[in-house]
Amino acid sequence: MKIKTLLLAISIMFAASAFSQHADGKYSFKNSQGMKCDLNFSDGGWKVSIKLNMGNVAPGKTFEGTGEWMNQGGGQWYQINTSNCSFDFDEPSSTLKLTLYDCTKSGMKEAKYTLSKI
Prior knowledge:
The protein has one helix at 2-18; strands at 25-30, 36-42, 47-53, 62-72, 75-81, 86-89, 95-101, 111-117. The protein is mainly beta. The model is unreliable at 6-19 (pLDDT under 50).
């Protein structure tokens, strides 16, 4: 009986870790287009803030906002809304795959960017 309980506890821990968000802390990413993205994760990875300088993609444009870890419909991602655009991305590792959308106020078009960890 103790072995079954132990195996169940281990299974639950692995299942929870498979669906976990990013660790707290500050992380920076950049790409060859001059874009730079600073992310700050807090509250056990449930909350995130972003400062995104668009670099050569849109000179002079910088977006700042806050968002959260989403876990809906079998999918998991971070979603950030600013007054000018919305962003989403999966759990970042050495690369950040950032999607930009709903940019009616900024004049930017929906796009996907890949940035590398600094």
